[in-house]
Amino acid sequence: MRVPLLASTVLLAGAVLSAQTQTPPPQQQQQGQQQQQTQGRGGRAGQGQAGQGRGGQQGPARDNPNNQAAQPAGTGVISGAVVSSDGGRPVRRARVTLAGGDLGTAKTATSDDQGRFSFTALPAGRFTLAASKAGYVNIQYGQKKPGRAGTPIQLADGQHLEDVKLPLPKGGVITGTVLDENNEASPGTQVTAWRAEMRTGEKRYQQVGADQTDDRGIYRIYGLLPGDYVIRATPRNAVGDIRQAVQDVVSQALAGNQGRGAGPGAGGGRGGAQIGQGLQQLLGGRGGAGGGGAAAMIGGMLADMSGNTEDAGVGYAPVYFPGTTTSTSATAISLDVSQERQGVDFQLQLVQTAKVSGTVTSPDGDTSGVLLTLVNEAEQAMGGGLNTARVQQDGTFSFTNVAPGQYVLQARQGGRGGGRRGQAGAATPGGAPAPPPEVLWGETAVFVDGRPVTGVSISLQPGMKVAGHLVFEGGQPPADLTRVRVALAPAGQAQGLDLAQNAPAQLDASGNFTITGVAPGRYTVRVQAGQIQGMTLKSAVTAGRDILDFPLEVKPNDDVADLTLTMSNQSQELSGTLTDMQNLPATGYTVIVFSTDTRFWTPQSRRIVSSRPGTDGRFIVRNLPAGDYFVAAVIDVEPGEWFDPKFLEQLRAASAHVTLAPGDKKVQDLRLSGGGA
User: Model pTM greater than 0.85?
Assistant: First the structure.
């Protein structure tokens, strides 16, 4: 849980602002980045398993000599020990990683039996130091708590930094039991942990750990960071497996009723009874299935099925703790550092499933290669609710085993008229790009309530066009503009797998481009031009709106024809030193730089950045657009929380102000006056 802002905001006094045109020294330019948490492997750990060192080491573990091949020589040393955070005991065989400076490839070492490690022959520079081990939470040097940013180490030429302590906390644990509807153990059930994160300024859940239940139905997910978690159980014998067994029982019952004048429409009594008995025998003996509710459910479905067992079915749906089939109704589990939460139990639920079928049409009657995606928007954020299908030659399609819910059916057909979908055609001999591949799209809403959904119609139509030109402001344009590509990227999460993907457009010799097949949605733009050195994309303007700040809204039947992309050789930079009240380097803080204009307080805004001061108190941020900014320092902040407008609003009063003109390289030194660590 985040420390209240009033306790974490740092008041700044004596802020010294001086404009400088020179670039700071290279070793001061790299800012530390938080180590990414990896997903568990082997179905258990909440974080990636650390590499294991070799036994028999008596002295401190040294860095891997294989990593030293093309790295600059030096005489600096960083050494210390990995210890447990709850008692300072040595942690052996932890993986320690040193990155940054002029190393190129990161160096790694494995702690010895006393937890010691050592990196030698280091050049001067700015480094990040991290440690990891299976069952523990990955940490960086200088972290205030797990999951926060660390403090970069500024190493001088020949400096020996010794006795560095890396306190590894044990990871948290969530454990429980999964039962079927008869309160029997459900072995082989996949259980996943999803952690709430704020990396974009909006709370989103990311899968960070998983396990499979044993023969007792017990699961245990370990190595978890503190935070809020949603837990989901997905049975192995889910919809598809059970459905096939159900079909066999239903077929036998219907066959037995033939010749007696009791078809499925009128045979609900005798056929339902036979099916119920069959299901009790079939499902009751399965490790992950109970038969009581299934029998009644199937018996009542006969009228809807009309003799076609492919149109409806029954199966176990994914269940979220404490026992709901929708993620929006799930109860989050709060986990403290190294805490173990027991009793997070589930009981699986049977649901009616249905077949969704219909027809795809296109302007020319060609429906070959159409990919359909059926998206349950409410569940996609948790990695579920997504089905795909291909269209048959006659334009028909079907999805089977679809659980109840509100869906969006998306269709995309690409690669027509030249080139594979997702690639631009080769340039013609005259230098003009080849016609891009034609892309068609379609979309419609579908509601599923357990009964068959038929007659769904989706019409393909040409995607929109986004056209414009690339201009250069200062610097020398590349000699061959046709090697430059312009691409659109979905702003935020795309709804489906494929609908929002477009082939990059190739510039012609005059700098013009046209992106085709663009489906409705919100987009930002990327310029793919590795040969354009020393230049950045300054703006992307259409209808007076810069889509680098405010995403482009593409609407149906509405092309964009005036997108102007401006590349510039001017870039802005803000750097400085954060010191405490004794004028010493202040470490353990995060510097937040954000626009004074609240219109730019949006997720992933390029006008909101963070920097972690190193052990020398130095911080630096680059490639900020010109404009007015607030600068603040905070003690404790969750990664990405600085995109939250409420968070930024509270920082205003404790912020310094700086203006960056085009090309400015300014230094803003900051001094703390209160709210210390």
Answer: no
